[in-house]
């Protein structure tokens, strides 16, 4: 055990609430970092990162931004061959509830200081282009080059094709200014939150033809790129060779997360082999779960104090996570699905117990497990779990086959101690 570390160091050893921006803390994923790098250096290629929740898509996107801005430290650490430092003007935007259409997306990119707005002010022709829509957008700007008194956005009186044209012209003017040697990279995280992304494929196809210096990297929860964009036309060609379908993490990669956390606190608190094995088992390939449990474990151990954590300690922390609602979203979904019913909770855990490698669940297998939990008529509770009343956490694939809507929630179902009864 080394000299005592600070509370801040303990609090930031694991970071479930935030994607990994620091290349030194990024674990594993060599194959996918390599794919991303080649996507960045390939002319005309756009990138996409798709996969389930909690498996590190946003963290990979942050590393792509680092690499695009000339930071090759991750490439060097992973022994990925590189012979130049890239120089992109990189923009990051995470979609939220207020971005419902492609028009909303372009509006946000144009009128947000952390996106393109700051650069637009420095380029007179780009400012003029933005001025064409500023009235309709209700963007209150004092003067070009001065501070903004207020920024609000509204799509009233703006037609989609009009903002498409303005966006294209603004990007063209920024590229002409040669702010960055390799062009512009726009990373759109949580793309799946856009209610109606129709027209985006057509837009980037047009931009690829007319403005070759612009790249997009879209990130979202989906099984494939067509599912994410909800369009099939041209999507394969637009992202040819640069779609990163991010799978669950390997145990060795999850172990690397724990190693990095221990190193960051100079081994002040250690996870023994049993603790590591339990953490990795519970995580089911989801780095988010390692960060969530790890953070709570270090916090409790630091305050007690305890300096070596074992499997029993991890199981105790799981109960504390549920009691404190350390992840209120997952906990809320769990309680809605269970709704204080022991039998429904037993069926939920039975469904997880028999998940096949492809994610599908054969109900006949789940019913056998549920009957061992003394559940009468388990099919009735499966019927409940597919309805909105209980969160629709289970999806019917075909007759007698189901799957969890969200693999992260499925992992939480397995990891969380029983709510209704200890079995």
Which helices and strands, and how do they pair?
Blueprint: H1 7-11, H2 30-41, E1 47-51, H3 57-68, H4 73-77, E2 88-94, H5 102-111, H6 113-120, H7 124-137, E3 139-140, E4 150-151, H8 160-176, E5 183-189, H9 200-210, E6 214-221, H10 225-229, H11 235-238, E7 243-245, H12 251-264, E8 270-271, H13 273-283, H14 287-303, E9 308-309, H15 311-324, H16 328-338, H17 342-353, E10 361-362, H18 363-372, H19 378-385, E11 394-398, E12 401-404, H20 407-415
Parallel strand pairs: 1-6, 1-7, 2-5, 5-6, 8-9
Antiparallel strand pairs: 3-4, 10-12, 11-12
What does this protein look like?
- This protein is an alpha/beta fold and 423 residues long.
- Helix content is 49%, strand content 12%.
- The protein has 20 helices and 12 strands.
- The strands form 4 sheets. The protein has a 5-stranded parallel β-sheet with strand order 2-5-6-1-7, with helices on both faces. The chain has a 3-stranded antiparallel β-sheet with strand order 10-12-11. A two-stranded antiparallel ribbon has the order 3-4.
- Strand 11 and strand 12 form a beta hairpin.
- Helix 17 packs across helix 19.
- The longest helix is centred in the middle third of the chain and has 17 residues.
- About 6% of the residues have low confidence.
């Amino acid at each position: 055990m080394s000299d005592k570390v600070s509370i801040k160091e303990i609090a930031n050893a694991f970071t479930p609430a935030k994607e990994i921006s620091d290349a030194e803390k990024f674990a594993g994923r060599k194959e996918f970092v390599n794919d991303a790098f080649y996507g960045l250096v390939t002319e005309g290629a756009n990138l996409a990162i798709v996969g389930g929740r909690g498996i590190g898509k946003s963290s990979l996107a942050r590393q792509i931004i680092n690499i695009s801005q000339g930071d090759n430290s991750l490439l060097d650490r992973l022994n990925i061959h590189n012979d130049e430092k890239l120089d992109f003007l990189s923009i990051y935007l995470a979609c939220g509830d207020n971005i419902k259409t492609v028009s909303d997306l372009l509006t946000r990119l144009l009128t947000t200081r952390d996106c393109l707005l700051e650069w637009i002010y420095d380029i007179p022709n780009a400012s003029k282009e933005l001025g064409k829509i500023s009235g309709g957008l209700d963007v209150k700007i004092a003067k070009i080059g001065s501070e903004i008194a207020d920024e609000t956005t509204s799509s009233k009186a703006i037609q989609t094709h009009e903002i498409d044209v303005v966006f294209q012209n603004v990007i063209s003017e920024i590229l002409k200014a040669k702010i960055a040697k390799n062009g512009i990279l726009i990373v759109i995280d949580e793309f799946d939150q856009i209610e109606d992304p129709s027209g985006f494929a057509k837009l980037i196809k047009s931009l690829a033809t007319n403005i070759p210096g612009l790249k997009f990297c879209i990130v979202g929860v989906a099984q494939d790129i067509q599912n994410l964009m909800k369009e099939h036309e041209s999507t394969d060609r637009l992202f040819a060779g640069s779609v990163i379908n991010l799978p669950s993490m390997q145990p060795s990669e999850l172990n690397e997360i724990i190693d990095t956390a221990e190193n960051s606190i100079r081994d002040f608190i250690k996870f023994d082999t049993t603790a590591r094995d339990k953490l990795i088992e519970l995580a089911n390939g989801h780095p988010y779960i390692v960060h969530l449990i790890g953070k709570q474990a270090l916090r409790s151990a630091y305050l007690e104090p305890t300096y070596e954590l074992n499997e029993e300690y991890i199981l105790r922390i799981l109960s504390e996570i549920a009691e404190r609602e350390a992840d209120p979203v997952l906990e809320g979904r769990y309680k809605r699905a269970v709704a204080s019913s022991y039998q429904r909770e037993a069926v939920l855990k039975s469904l997880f117990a028999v998940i096949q490698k492809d994610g599908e669940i054969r109900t006949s297998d789940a019913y056998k497990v549920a009957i061992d939990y003394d559940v009468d008529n388990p099919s009735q509770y499966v019927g409940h779990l597919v309805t909105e009343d209980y969160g629709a956490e289970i999806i019917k694939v075909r007759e007698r086959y189901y799957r969890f809507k969200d693999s992260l929630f499925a992992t939480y179902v397995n990891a969380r101690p029983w709510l209704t009864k200890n079995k």
